[in-house]
Amino acid sequence: MVRLKDIAEHVGVSISTVSRVIQNDQTRNVNQETKNKIWQAVKELGYTPNQHARNLVHNKQQKSNTRTMKIGWVANPKQAEINPYFSDIYTGIRDTLTNQDYTLISITKDELENESLLHKTIHDLGIEGLLLIDRIDDSLIDYIQKTIPVVGLDFFYTNKNIAIVDYDRKEAIKTVVKHLICQGHREIGFIGGGANETYKDLHDESRFKGFQAAMDEAGLAMRLEWVLNTKWKMENSYDEMNQLIQNNPGHLPTAMVCASDMMAIAAMRAAIENELRIPEDIAFFGVDNIEMGKYSSPPLSTVDIPKYEMGKMAAKTIMEIVEEKVTLPIKLILPFELVIRESSAIKRT
C-alpha cells in the first residue's frame, strides 16, 4: 500500500507538504511546481487518499460492506439544457439509475482536470462509477479507472479501451447519402463540425468520413465549397448556408446532408429566406430525430438515434460493472433508422 511517506521520498519533500497538497490545504502556500510533482507521483505510485477509495480499488479481493449507490455523470452542464440530443440521453440515465435506487451525481470536466479537486471529486464523494460524455484526457481516464469503473458515451469515446455505448455515425451518414442517391440526387453537400476540441478538424469526424466514403463509393465528386464546417453552432450553419447560396446562385447542391438536426434546421431557414423551395430546389437531411424536427417547415427528414436507450444502456452497463456482473469493457453499438419527412420527400428525375 502506497503511503504519504512514499510520495514524499519520491518527490523529495516533507510528508506534511504532501498532505497539504492532497488535502488542498490553503493555510500554507506550496509552489505550483512542487504541487505538480506531488500529483504526478500520486498518479505514478497509485496512491488513493482514503479508505473508501482503497476499498474500491481492491474490491475484487476485499469487498466493502458499504454501498454509496452513487454514479457520477461528467458532461457540460449546458449541453442537456440547450441540446435535446443530450437531454434525452441524460433522461435515460437518470430514469434507469433512479429505478434501481442509485443517485446520479453531476460532475464537471473542470472538477476532474483540477488536480486539487480530482481526489475530492472521485474519492470523497463516494461515487462507485463514472459516466463520461464530455471529453477528458486519456491519461485522466486511465487514472480514474484504477479507482472506479468508467463508461463512455458519444463520439469522444468510441475508440477508447473502456466500456462504451454509442451508435455508428459513419454508417448512419453513408445510409443517408445512399438514400439521397436513390432519390436521384448527384450533387450533394455536407454540413457538420470537427472532432477535436476546437471543432476545426472536420476530416477526422465520423459523420464526415461517412459522407466521403458514400460519395466515393458512388463515384460522385465532393465539392469543397459545398462542405460547411459550422463547428456545431446553429448560427454558423445559418450564416454559412446563406453565404453558399448567395455566392453560388447558378450552381447549388440539390441536397444537403447535415450532421445534426439543429444544423439542418438553421440551414433550412437560410434556404427559405433566399426563396429556395425545400425539397424542390434543395433537400435537407439531418441526424438525431429531435422533437423540433417534426415541427420545422417543412418537417425534417432525419436519422433516428435511440438517445433515451443510449442513456438507459449506459446506466445499466455501469451498474453491472459496479456490481461485478460484467468485467470486460463492453462495446454496445445501438441501431439507427431513417425517418423520411417532407424536407427530402420528392424524388428527382
Write the layout of secondary structure elements.
Elements: H1 4-11, H2 15-22, H3 32-45, H4 51-57, E1 70-74, H5 79-82, H6 84-99, E2 103-107, H7 109-113, H8 115-124, E3 129-132, H9 138-145, E4 150-153, E5 163-167, H10 169-182, E6 188-192, H11 206-218, E7 227-229, H12 234-247, E8 255-258, H13 261-273, E9 283-285, E10 302-304, H14 307-322, E11 331-334, E12 337-339
Parallel strand pairs: 1-2, 1-3, 3-4, 4-5, 5-11, 6-7, 6-8, 8-9
Antiparallel strand pairs: 10-12
Helix pairs in contact: 1-2, 1-3, 6-14, 10-11, 12-13
What would you note in describing this structure?
There is one protein chain. This protein has helices at 4-11, 15-22, 32-45, 51-57, 79-82, 84-99, 109-113, 115-124, 138-145, 169-182, 206-218, 234-247, 261-273, 307-322; strands at 70-74, 103-107, 129-132, 150-153, 163-167, 188-192, 227-229, 255-258, 283-285, 302-304, 331-334, 337-339. The chain has three domains: 1-47, 434 Repressor (Amino-terminal Domain) (Orthogonal Bundle), CATH 1.10.260.40; 50-167 and 310-334, Rossmann fold (3-Layer(aba) Sandwich); 169-305 and 337-344, Response regulator (Rossmann fold, 3-Layer(aba) Sandwich). By secondary structure, the chain is an alpha/beta fold. The chain has 14 helices and twelve strands. It is 43% helix and 14% strand.
